[in-house]
Amino acid sequence: MKKLLLLPAFLFFGCKKSSEGAAASGPIDERSTGRAAAALLSADTYTSLQVEVSYMPGYAPDAAALSQLHAFLQARLNKPGNISISTRAVPAATGTVLSVSDLSAIESAQRTGHSSGSTATIHILYTNGSYTEPGVLGVAYRGTSLALFGKKIHDNSGGLGQASRTKLEATVLEHEIGHLLGLVDIGSPMQTPHKDPGGLAHCNNSGCLMYY
Ligand SMILES: [Zn+2]
Ligand SMILES: [Zn+2]
Asked: How do the domains of the chain map onto residue ranges?
């Protein structure tokens, strides 16, 4: 399990990938992380993708980071319908430390879009809290679910010697979506071998998005 990540260009961030109690088949929203990859990547079942971003007070997404995410998805997914991203404000979490089950409960209460018909959905929760392990900036925890820890991202970006907020937020978003898309080797076969033998679904190439 990976907690702290050191990226090139002074980017310091963390990732957790968790799939507690989730399935490998059935509705893609209920699957474990990486097991919805084929459905998200191809147009076989879902020809469109809706990304729903729910954010807590003070942690509205960076608009430029979301447009980078949109371009990232457009370039990689086969969705001839369309790929859209919507944002909405949700109430603050009462706890300041959030576990996967807390994130799951908040998601159940707030998520409005569920994958059905020809539209797949991904839910991204921007929280005001931090993860149960310090240093974690994002977590992918189910087939179409991930969360970002807004305060950690704000604290680690935009300052002297830090990455810009847009750069850090877009990198964390793309990295966590990478897990939903089956990287590294958790649902999509590797095109070139790059899985870090010591890491869980992370990469050994420091230039790679999935490096930690
Ligand atoms: Zn990761
Ligand atoms: Zn890699």
From this structure: 17-180
ipTM of the complex: 0.89
Q: Show the 3-state SS of 90-120.
A: CCCCCCCEECHHHHHHHHHHHCCCCCECCEE
Between the CA of 57 and the centroid of ligand 2 the distance, in Å, is 34
Q: How far is the CA of 7 from the centre of ligand 2 (A)?
A: 12
Model pLDDT for residues 159-172, shown as the tens digit of each residue:
998 899 999 999 99
Q: How many CB atoms lie within 10 A of CB 102?
A: 18
Q: Which CATH architecture has domain 17-180?
A: 3-Layer(aba) Sandwich (3.40)
Q: How far apart are CA 108 and CA 81, in angstroms?
A: 26
Which residue type occupies 13?
F
